[in-house]
Fold each of these.
Amino acid sequence: MIQFENVTKRFPGGHDALRGLSLVVEKGEMVFVTGHSGAGKTTLLRLIALIERPTSGQVIVDGQNTSRVSRRKIPAYRRQIGMVFQDHKLLYDRPVFDNVALPLIIAGLSHRDAARKVRAALDQVSLLNKEKQFPETLSSGEQQRVGIARAIVSRPKLLIADEPTGNLDPDLSLEVMRIFRRFNEIGVTLLIASHDIALIDQLGCRRIPLANGMLHYEEEEDVVAEYAERLESERGRTG
């Protein structure tokens, strides 16, 4: 489903966010990208979504070389990918229903077909009774579930998520991951960037650990220690 072949991404100023990265995610897998802040996790996802393009190397998604996707064809390319963000990226002046319907409206679906798909997506994340509410009236966990519903409403083959539980407590984080697991069980390929190793361990999924833009399996112990230290610091501030 996803293949990186010797991919480097260099930003202005000479910073290499990814350096000669090669990896494969098979169709139907649920895989986590781990690493410190700045390790290259977000850049990896942005390359898959064609928000960025590689400086060198090839990114292949579902058999399609992204380097050959013209700017005009990017919207059509992205319809096969669901994207979930840590900060939700919801439209706060629109109700939940409209937020979830947005990809379908852009794709030109009729109101009747869109409504059916929106309600099915909301039902999958247990928010069917919230369709008329505005995002600001929802909890952080509910807002994240709206973002997930929007990502899956078009029934994509691939779902990518960037730190989707970064702002949630452990119980809500596990709830979100279980939602992802249900999608994976019906054949959706998932690639999730996260530094929460303890949470990932509960799911038993393969990990792709990054450090300085490269694969680095020895880095994971440091990531666990860093995350534990951050949690302890947060408890101290709220205790």
Note: Strands lie at 2-11, 15-25, 30-34, 56-61, 64-65, 81-85, 158-162, 189-193, 206-211, 214-215.
Amino acid sequence: MAQKSKYIALLIALTYFTYLLIEITIQYIPYHPDVAFLRIKQHYIDVPFFLTLFYVHVYTAIFSMVAGFTQFSETILKRWRRVHRYSGWFYIVIVLLFAAPSGLYIGIYANGGLSSQIAFILLALGWFAFTATALIKIRKHDYQSHRYFMMRSFSLALSAITLRAWKYVIVAIFEPRPMDVYIIVAWLGWILNLFVAELLVLRLKRNRRLKRTANAQKTK
């Protein structure tokens, strides 16, 4: 019961922040080169493919968030396996063909100089690599490894939310300069997510080992 309550609380929090992300995405509809975040990127507007790939990233990343939510529900996995499978494929296609490659390109032009650029490039590369590995694992029917890499992948997808959440917290507490905030959240927005994902993976692996040990003892 406690675990179910934690899951519901987490789902509510993720839903709320996803709603905020949708509000941000709506700002870029219709297509316009001088709106919201793009107002401070005007010196990159004429860079080949920048504006196009920026909008590709904005429009597709939100769908990866929604699809990702369905991947870690035991209820959906057990009762609606097709929903899990199709939404998983949708997530993988969105990330590998659109969201991660476009994120890599616009990361090259990130504000904050070299530090921020490296952070967003590593984020995009990690997102692509974890998602591609999850695809390889499921094609080999290695379901456990597939789950672990999907957890890592989705933790990076969540950076779209956590980056902004950390921004609000840091500004409210420390009131630093805007560019300093940008550099900090460029790293903090995904590294902590990945750290938490690794802790969850380690916990799942430990529980799996304990279960195997218990089953082996029962058969003796």
Note: The chain has one domain: 2-219.
Amino acid sequence: MTGPRPVPAPVEGLWVTFEGGDGSGKTTQAALLEMWLREQGRAVVRTREPGGTEVGDLVRAIVLHHRGEVAPRAEALLYAADRAQHVATLVRPALARGEVVIQDRYLDSSVAYQGAGRVLDAAEIRELSLWAAEGALPDVTVLLDLDPADARRRLEADDKPFDRLEAEQADFHERVRAAFLGLAVGEPDRFLVLDAARPVEELAAAVRARVGDALGSPRGPRGRG
């Protein structure tokens, strides 16, 4: 007579977010990381905020492309609503399946853009986002740091219309950059800060090294840090 079958250990997913100012190269690096992980045989979900879900796409159209006025607090609440839907219906299920989630922007962007950029209370913005996402934080956050003037030149070279946030003045983007760097100082175990002016492949190699280490390390519950 055989005994009870052993219960397999739960498969552990990994959550990687990319942060930085507009034009810093987040989309490029997220795509390169996805390609590398798939080559390693990993199941990957690549997503973004705002967006990633049907509800999120509706919110994205408002916060980035609506040409009328959106009050700063209304903007912050819209991002939080998108975040709640995104984490509950896409991120958490993917992590539970043991997949790697690669995400373009998360709550750090709200703290930087709505907290510092819109001059709201950064601590309140963070608490709002944590409440919306039930305290969920990524395992690794890659911050691509770039001088806002250089970022603007990159955006102008793309020859695409600026969205609501890209079109903000230089002082707005300087506040955003400073806020991102401050967040990284406060959570050095989560953040990998990279100079986004470095060559694309050098950046990709640094990201791969950090994510590879994280995949080989045991991780606890994703809490407030």
Note: Residues 6-10 have pLDDT under 50 and may be disordered.
